[in-house]
Amino acid sequence: xxxxxxxxxxxxxxxxxxxxxxxxxxxxxxxxxxxxxxxxxxxxxxxxxxxxxxxxxxxxxxxxxxxxxxxxxxxxxxxxxxxxxxxxxxxxxxxxxxxxxxxxxxxxxxxxxxxxxxxxxxxxxxxxxxxxxxxxxxxxxxxxxxxxxxxxxxxxxxxxxxxxxxxxxxxxxxxxxxxxxxxxxxxxxxxxxxxxxxxxxxxxxxxxxxxxxxxxxxxxxxxxxxxxxxxxxxxxxxxxxxxxxxxxxxxxxxxxxxxxxxxxxxxxxxxxxxxxxxxxxxxxxxxxxxxxxxxxxxxxxxxxxxxxxxxxxxxxxxxxxxxxxxxxxxxxxxxxxxxxxxxxxxxxxxxxxxxxxxxxxxxxxxxxxxxxxxxxxxxxxxxxxxxxxxxxxxxxxxxxxxxxxxxxxxxxxxxxxxxxxxxxxxxxxxxxxxxxxxxxxxxxxxxxxxxxxxxxxxxxxxxxxxxxxxxxxxxxxxxxxxxxxxxxxxxxxxxxxxxxxxxxxxxxxxxxxxxxxxxxxxxxxxxxxxxxxxxxxxxxxxxxxxxxxxxxxxxxxxxxxxxxxxxxxxxxxxxxxxxxxxxxxxxxxxxxxxxxxxxxxxxxxxxxxxxxxxxxxxxxxxxxxxxxxxxxxxxx
Length: 636
Known about the structure:
Layout: E1 4-5, H1 15-38, H2 40-53, E2 66-71, H3 73-79, H4 86-97, E3 104-107, H5 117-129, E4 132-139, E5 148-149, E6 156-157, E7 170-172, E8 183-186, E9 199-200, E10 203-206, E11 209-212, H6 214-222, H7 224-233, E12 242-243, E13 254-257, H8 258-262, E14 275-280, E15 288-289, E16 297-298, H9 299-314, H10 326-347, H11 349-372, H12 380-412, H13 418-427, H14 429-432, E17 436-448, H15 450-455, H16 459-479, E18 483-487, E19 491-496, H17 505-529, E20 536-552, E21 556-562, H18 564-578, E22 583-585, H19 587-591, E23 598-603, E24 612-616
Parallel strand pairs: 2-13, 2-14, 3-4, 3-14, 4-8, 5-7, 20-22
Antiparallel strand pairs: 1-21, 4-7, 6-11, 9-12, 10-11, 15-16, 17-19, 17-20, 18-19, 20-21, 22-24, 23-24
């Protein structure tokens, strides 16, 4: 069998191979990352991962600067069922802006129809002169004819380029009596594909008028410059809407019951100098949405979340300057991580796998920190890119290993029959090649008159002769499931019964011998046609016990067989020359061969204490006699 050497120590991969692998794996990683950015189903996973990583405050945390006044079920029980009179609504707002000294009030409800005239007049006066932000709904659904209910108020001229701001197709505004309102904000939201509200249009336009969201409108109503600084501090927000971080739990907002305000039961210090948002958690008013913090959340708390982020942005030393575009941060993180991964995998695969886990954990921790600070980098594009890069690199490694294995197996297939080789691989080559005692049959074949034939020709012709002869006699060995031990210059040694056990090892060797003689006859036909001399062959076959396995030293080893039967087969091959026989079979191999053989009598072989019976091919089936050799050799 092919000589084996000790495994070489690991060597660095060639630079070209590393670059090729890095580029291929990087292309896969970027493609996967792009899918997370572009494909809606994956974007839902992205949003949910952000929800899971966003840190929430402690249970006793209260958002500073924001108060929610809730018209709850309890309020309706105590103060009367909805709708309340406009006078009562005016009382509620006046109490907040007057005795309780709120900085500003936002009303998270639309009043499309007039009601009691006196109450409407009071509300109109408050909307025109006090820091009161009213609400209206913008419709972004494409319809045959846009919805137009009520009379829009407030707003500014929309940008000249419509693509700079989301465009609504219709609206539900307050009644005409409130058209002089100074501050008006929209309360429209657009849920994501999974039905969860995560974004708000900070500004949107309808009929060439632009409106801020209600929370921004409230801040603008109190201090327009502060509102602009807060917007700048939120960082970039595009046409698809600004993502609300939802860093505040719904219970983090200080909430006052509306009836407590109306009944004068609120300590002014709880409201003084704060922004107030009036809304309802009553089931009958149906103002609920799904958010990342609660599957059923009162709509007023969404505006409170936005308002808290605006106030938080005002507290930053340099609003806007500290915040890197989250998409840019994600892209930079992805590219930097891929570069580090490529270096790690190029050095050692195990290092790349370990770094993959470290990078993934570090990126998730960085994203969680960013979400806690109000930024919103993309989570899964980088994670997906890292994992796909590693998977692609490992797949390329595996493909290269398979190619190498195939090359090795193809080489081994020259020495072991392919079915035997496949079975060896399934059983595990390492254990199969461990030296062990086996019952085998050995075949030794040699070209007759090789010295004389090569002496009459040049080196090139001798090489061709040797190659043709060995090719002819090797294939029968492999086809019959034999193991090619080694070439002996002008012949070979093969055995059957190892590395895989087989009961018919003697029959396999004999069948291979017959096929070798047929192959030699075919070769001689071709040589005769080329006006070249025919060549002969001698074969010796014997069976017995041998030590078979991977034998040698740490520097060099070889899969071979050691035992008396190998020596006997070699001497039987030599005996065939002296007895002018083509093939001689020993007594042990004869037991396993069912074909008829011709007894040749007893012979004394060197190294044996007694003569042994040997056998040859029947005269009728014997191959043409080889050219006689003039020099005789005794078998003793």
